[in-house]
Specification:
There is one protein chain. It contains nine helices and six strands, in the order βαβαααβααβαβαβα. The chain is an alpha/beta fold and about 210 residues long. Strand 4, helix 7 and strand 5 form a beta-alpha-beta unit. Helix 1 packs across helix 9. The model has no long low-confidence stretch (mean pLDDT about 95). This is NAD(P)H:quinone oxidoreductase. Belongs to the WrbA family.
C-alpha cells in the first residue's frame, strides 16, 4: 500500500480565479492518492470593499463553507500548496498574514522538511506571475522547506510556459480558468504528491 501523504492546499482568492485553481489542485492531489485539506486564508478587507465588487462578493458567498487555514493544518500536512493572486508582483496581504502567524511553529521546527509549492493568477501575461511565486518561495527557504516546482517536467509545461508554478491570466476576471491551467494544476499536484511520498519513504528507510 502506498505511503499516506497529507496535502494542505491553502489559498487566498478575492474574485474566484485562485479559488478555482485551488479546488482543482485539491482534486488532483486526491486522485494521486493524497489526503487533502482545502483551506482559505482569512479575509482582511472590509465588507464594504467586498460588496462593492460583484465578483468578489459572489466568490465570498460561494466559498463560505471552506474552512479558514489554521496552524494545525501546517502541522498535519506533509506538503503544502500555497495559492495567491499577485498584488503588485507580490503575495496578497491575506495569505501573508496567515504565514506571519506561523512564527511559533517555525521556531519549534514544525515547518521544516515539508514539501511546498505554489500557484498564482494575474491580470496580464507579464503582470507578476514569476515575481509573486518567487516572493512566496522566499518564505519556503526560511521554513527549511523542500520546494517542488513543476519545472518543464511534462510536455504541457511548454504550452503554459511557467516552470515556477501553475498560473492563470484572468484579465479583469473575464478570462475563466481553462484546460491549459487545469492541466498545469494536475501536473503540479501529481508532482507534489509523488515527491512527498518519495521523501517520506526515504526518511522512513533511514529510521
Amino acid at each position: 500500500m502506498p505511503t499516506p501523504v497529507n496535502v494542505a492546499v491553502i489559498y487566498y482568492s478575492s474574485t474566484g480565479t485562485v479559488a478555482t485553481i485551488a479546488k482543482a489542485m485539491a482534486q488532483y492531489a486526491e486522485k494521486a492518492g493524497a489526503e487533502v485539506r482545502l483551506r482559505k486564508a482569512g479575509e482582511l478587507a472590509p465588507q464594504a470593499a467586498i460588496d462593492s465588487n460583484p465578483a468578489w462578493a459572489a466568490n465570498a458567498k460561494a466559498t463560505a463553507d471552506i474552512a479558514e487555514a489554521s496552524p494545525d493544518d501546517m502541522i498535519w500536512a506533509d506538503a503544502v500548496i500555497l495559492g495567491t493572486p499577485t498584488r503588485f508582483g507580490n503575495v496578497t496581504a491575506q495569505l501573508k498574514q496567515f504565514l506571519d502567524t506561523l512564527g511559533g511553529l517555525w521556531q519549534a521546527g514544525h515547518l521544516a522538511d515539508k514539501v511546498y509549492s505554489g500557484f498564482t493568477s494575474t491580470s496580464t501575461a507579464h503582470g507578476g506571475q514569476e515575481s509573486t511565486l518567487l516572493a512566496l518561495y522566499n518564505t519556503v527557504h526560511h521554513f527549511g522547506g523542500i520546494l517542488v516546482a513543476p519545472g518543464y517536467t511534462d510536455p504541457s509545461k511548454f504550452a503554459d510556459g511557467n516552470p515556477y508554478g501553475t498560473s492563470h491570466v484572468a484579465g479583469q476576471g473575464d478570462i475563466p480558468v481553462g484546460e491549459q491551467t487545469l492541466t498545469a494544476a494536475r501536473v503540479q499536484a501529481e508532482r507534489v504528491v509523488k515527491f512527498t511520498r518519495a521523501i517520506k519513504d526515504g526518511l522512513a528507510a533511514e529510521n
